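ok trying this again, last paste got cut off
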Amino acid sequence: MTLNDGFERTVSDWLDEQAGHGMPGYLDEALARTTRTRQRPAWSSLERWLPVDTTTNLRIASRPTLGRALVLVAVLAALIGLALVAVGSLNPRVPAPFGIAANGQIAYWADGDILVADPDGTHAHAVISGPSDDGVPAYTRDGTQLAFLRNVSPHEATLMIANADGSGVRSVLKQPLTDSSWFDWSPDDRSLATVQVVDGVRVLSIVDVEHGTMRTLDVNGLAVDYWVAFRPGTNSELIFGTRSGSGDSERAGIYSIQADGSGLTPVVPSVVGPAEYKQVDLAPDGRTLTYWRWESATRPGRIHQLDITKKWDTELRFDPSDFGESGLLHSPDGSQVLLSRNEQSGATRGQIMIAPADASRPGILIGRRFDADTVEPAYGFSPDGKIVFVTFDGAAPQFFDAVTGAVRAGPSTPSNCCTWQRRAP
């Protein structure tokens, strides 16, 4: 069972192998999560849709009849109905920010370009291409826009945004982000939270997408870990990790803070140990979170579920024969989970498992086995929760049925994958 955090290993590999070229080693987990920008309607008032006739010779002195009045009412009602239909077509339905959604396009990146494919992996094509080195695409929560990072140096990348079809590309901020490890869209899609390095220190920042501004939150000197997430079921509450020290002296914690910087509160007590509060994931309802920790040499990786409000902490065990389990990720409706498990017979031999969220029965193993000390695949669910993907570095992603584990069609391009466009059910 590896004790190294996936992010730290990714950054290390990047520094050793790709310094000066290629996309920085941002975590695939940064693909997560995404935003809505309100669309300005093409109409400004009902006058543009209601009948206005200035050329008709009105017979002011004539006495209206009941039949004529009923006809006028019927015509007016029909025209208002047409207006409402037209207005509705200018404001298409979008999915709720959390939970189940319909599957849209799959976005991924390869060779510095952003590509998209249909949900079954067909019709793959580049939507962002050219001499720039682009990667880490992330659809907004409503699927209408696509954010990504444009590499400008080994440690710096510009936050970009485009329409879902790749048109209208623009930078969000004037200044690039430095060693950015994570970003997560707010429920209303107007801002995103990001973790980056400023003056050698990791900080938690909020980016206002509409105005192109960024502000750093005051966390009272806490050592910010690499991740942050908006808590489902709330409008502006953030959950983030802290981590300092190393080895047996490593101190870790989980905190809550509002997007305006107020309400800094510990979610769990800070603890000291070699591997604590690793790979935190929030349940879709926002009531619980999961993490894994090192228990002992005979009980290495163990996944825990924490009730955020009641502070109840429960250990989950998905397969009693496992040597260790880690990296739990919830499905969109919270009924299933993905996790990485290590075999009892070979402590470093890992494989991905699909399992019921309540750990009521052993799950289904999918994908190839891997050395958990040197390999860490990326994995996730489709917006409708029916498809699972697993990606290994330098290989085409593998897609599986979330219920049976059967292989499903997916993009065939070796790439970093995936983020899914969410659409209204």
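PB: full thing came through this time. The chain is about 10% helix and 40% strand.
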